[in-house]
Amino acid sequence: MNAKPVVGTASPAKTPVAFIAILGALMAFTSLSTDIYLPAMPQMARDLQGDAELTVTGFLVGFTIAQLIWGPISDHFGRRLPLFIGMVLFAVGSVGCAMSENITQIVFWRVFQALGACTGPMLARAMIRDLFTRTQAAQMLSTLVLVMAVAPIAGPLLGGQIIRFSTWHSIFWLLAVIGGVMFVSLVWLPETLSPEKRTRASLGNAFHNYFSLLKNTAFMRYTLSLTFYYVAAYAFITGSPFVYIHYFGIDPQHYGWLFAVNILGVMAMSVVNRRLVVRHSLESLLKGASVIAVIATIALSVLVKLNIGGVASIVITVFIFFSMNGIIAATSTAAALDEVPHIAGAASALIGALQYGSGIISSLLLAFFRDGTPWTMAWIIALFTLASFLVVLPAKAKRTAA
């Protein structure tokens, strides 16, 4: 684990299992930090006498802003140091959440928690780009999705069981412990950005990389495609507790199973994508998966509007939509990073900031247009899935050696 593979020669098939497991866990930090307490949100709202959805919004605000800071820092100092600091911040923030007594306190600590959590997925993506070529990076990202998918499956199930025997505070104490475990695991993670490849300019100048990224049409096309898709995904993540638990009366302990079935679809498509990326261009795979997602979400909105199929129609159409994440996330991220390999840290930060910051848009739209039915969630999902497809439609196929 101490030797650093050379970019272009590192093979996904020969990558150490421990390396994959640690990066997969880092990629899972966002999902784990939010999904694990979804079943407890109604209880939190009562206890804290406020809107529990603000805890999701606060986390995403902190997550979005902090990534833009950590990106240039990682390009300048390497990947490991920001990760160690990030895990400490995450653990401290989790303790703060566990000890919160009102909605203002927990939103503050959720923002603080996000300052550390964001280093996980952002730097995991950057490390993959440090080591692998375009197609190999897509394969590795698909592999990591399989590992990280454990979090959104286990999270709601575990959270639902915890609130049966304890309170929501215990969920955040558990997150603090997980942060400590991840801090220790980083000892076995190698540095992937060699000193000679680090940004030599001052950190102030390094932040100007964001302006060049925003002006890079190809990079932004793939990044916005992923961003719009995640607006739709977060509309479901944030809106589904209300739809399933309140509107359809599903028990909070069973909510986790309905949420988890979507992640099984993501895992299955990630396995398929590992084989497809060596036969087809990333662009064609991204467009194909986006078309399927559009069809599923249009069906979702129509069925909900006409009140056909009840909860079953939502579960089935959302399953198809969510499953496409196994292709869309890996291909769009790999294609975007391939456009700017010389500033992968800043690029990964901007991707992550827009990807997870998209959840803020979802939360605000759900709050502003809420009508007491699943319709608001459905049309937001359909609208932004369509936008995700349209923005990537002009992309030209680009083949590179595996």
From TrEMBL:
GO terms for molecular function: sodium:proton antiporter activity; xenobiotic transmembrane transporter activity. This is Bcr/CflA family efflux transporter. Residues 1-400 form the Major facilitator superfamily (MFS) profile domain. SUPFAM superfamilies: MFS general substrate transporter (SSF103473). It is a multi-pass membrane protein. It is found in: Cell inner membrane; Cell membrane. Belongs to the major facilitator superfamily. Bcr/CmlA family. It holds the Pfam family MFS_1. GO terms for biological process: xenobiotic detoxification by transmembrane export across the plasma membrane. The chain crosses the membrane at residues 12-32, 52-71, 83-101, 107-128, 140-159, 171-190, 228-248, 254-272, 284-304, 310-337, 349-369, 375-395. GO terms for cellular component: plasma membrane. InterPro entries: Efflux_drug-R_Bcr/CmlA (IPR004812), MFS (IPR011701), MFS_dom (IPR020846), MFS_trans_sf (IPR036259). Keywords: Cell inner membrane, Cell membrane, Membrane, Transmembrane, Transmembrane helix, Transport.
